[in-house]
Design goal:
This protein has 396 residues and is of the alpha+beta class. It has three domains: 114 residues, Acyl-CoA dehydrogenase/oxidase, N-terminal domain (Butyryl-Coa Dehydrogenase, subunit A, domain 1), CATH 1.10.540; 104 residues, Butyryl-CoA Dehydrogenase, subunit A, domain 2; 150 residues, Butyryl-CoA Dehydrogenase, subunit A, domain 3, CATH 1.20.140. The protein has ten helices and ten strands. The structure holds flavin-adenine dinucleotide (FAD).
Length: 396
């Protein structure tokens, strides 16, 4: 059992490269991007130049041919500067195109994935609907077959990247009478399609990452754009949710790390009562708790990613150890992330409450991870279900 958690030389190089880019290119844009709630337009092209838009995709598709550990590392590193934009990158790379890579048709993948890796296509994934959030199998968007096309009507809400997306994957009912077994996955190009509209949703956190309410009105989709086969959408959805929860944990992790580093620096510099505030034990207690939280979160997330990388089929979903580990990773990272961000603001005092200080952004962003990609309550339900299943005998 290897327990040293040392990054390999290649992983260290990825971390250094992405971090240098994040500090030089992204950081100077963040205050404006957050205030204007606009994503820097060249974000994906920049990441394409770094070769990190398809970290786990095969090289034949333009990817880096690495794994979910490296994908997590890239998201963690971007999130050290921007949790929100790490989410936007993850929504395109992991939620959308990785699902397409795992379940899409070969010819389409050969054509589209290299464009995604270069950053010329931005993706989004639509599961959630106004009346179906945690109860995702209860979606009401319909796709009706007419000749060689499907006609889609319905809506999706809270969709990350919807307003900027060139490619959308989504789920719709194709056989409503079959319940969850009557759901299918589709893809299409929103900017080239009639019958698609998107309204931006205003949020108090995760600003600069666009979120949209999408409406489908007689949207026509050719039948070859089915992903994973007719009425097979549940398999696509549930297997994707695990890698999504693991890699998305990186957004919380990077933000946790930044909160700790910014707080250490500030506590050493800020003088009150004639001493740096770092000399006060109540500040030290917070720093120690933040450190422990980050270290434990890191272990939860990277061990889940390493476990996933070892699996031949990388399949999650009900009845798998991966399902439990993925839910636990995001549950722990998100709740710890919120606590760490709260402590970081407290250590910064009044300055922590001002937008000029990046801890304010981390604080606003972290809360989302207790909600997005399945809420904390739903993750606890999954963990308990998998612990209680009869044949459970994993080494945890
Ligand atoms: C910024 C942002 C980005 C997002 N990006 C995407 C995206 O790209 N694509 C996408 O499809 N979705 C996205 N989402 C949607 C997100 O996944 C949902 O918000 C989430 O799954 C919860 O659904 P809901 O908001 O409808 O809450 P609800 O399901 O209505 O839940 C409300 C409350 O009830 C609790 N609850 C519900 N059921 C149970 C239960 N059985 N037991 C106990 N408690 C329960 C919940 O935990 C929660 O506390 C995003 C959301 C946000 C805010």
């Amino acid at each position: 059992m290897a327990l040293d958690f040392e990054l390999t030389d290649e992983q260290k190089m990825i971390e250094d490269t992405v971090y240098r880019w994040a500090v030089d290119w992204l950081e100077p844009k963040m205050e404006h991007a957050y205030e204007s709630d606009e994503m820097p337009p060249d974000l994906f092209k920049e990441l394409g130049k770094l070769g990190v838009n398809g970290v786990a995709y095969e090289e034949a598709y333009g990817g880096a041919g690495l794994g979910y550990v490296e994908t997590l590392l890239v998201y963690e590193t971007i999130a050290r500067v921007s949790n929100a934009l790490a989410m936007t990158v993850c929504a395109s790379q992991s939620l959308c195109f990785d699902n397409f890579r795992r379940h899409g048709q070969e010819k389409q993948k050969q054509e589209l994935l290299p464009e995604a890796c270069e950053g010329r296509l931005i993706g989004c994934l639509g599961i959630t609907e106004p009346n179906a959030g945690s109860d995702a199998m209860n979606i009401s968007t319909r796709a009706e077959k007419r000749g060689d096309r499907f006609i889609v009507n319905g809506s999706k809400t809270f969709i990350t990247n919807a307003s900027v997306a060139d490619f959308m994957m989504f789920y719709a009912k194709t056989a409503p009478q079959k319940g969850p077994r009557g759901i299918s996955a589709f893809w299409f190009k929103p900017k080239e399609s009639k019958g698609f509209s998107c309204e931006k949703i205003k949020k108090w956190g995760m600003k600069s990452s666009p979120t949209g309410l999408v409406t489908f009105e007689d949207l026509e989709i050719p039948e070859e754009n089915l992903v994973g086969g007719l009425n097979e959408g549940v398999n696509v959805l549930t297997s994707g949710l695990c890698t999504e929860r693991i890699t998305i944990s990186g957004c919380s992790l990077g933000s946790q790390r930044s909160c700790l580093e910014l707080s250490l620096k500030y506590a050493k510099e800020r003088v009150q009562f004639g001493k740096p505030i770092a000399s006060f034990q109540m500040i030290q207690e917070k720093l120690a708790n933040m450190y422990c939280g980050y270290k434990a979160s890191r272990w939860m997330a990277y061990s889940a990613a390493a476990y996933c990388d070892k699996l031949a089929n990388k399949r999650g979903g009900k009845g798998t150890d991966l399902d439990r580990m993925a839910a636990a990773s995001l549950l722990f990272c998100s709740e710890t992330g919120t606590k760490i961000a709260l402590d970081a603001v407290q250590i910064h005092g009044g300055y922590g409450y001002c937008t000029e200080y990046p801890v304010s952004r981390h604080f606003l962003d972290q809360k989302l991870w207790e909600i997005g990609a399945g809420t904390s309550e739903i993750r606890r339900i999954i963990i308990a279900r998998e612990l209680l299943r009869d044949e459970f005998r994993s080494g945890y």
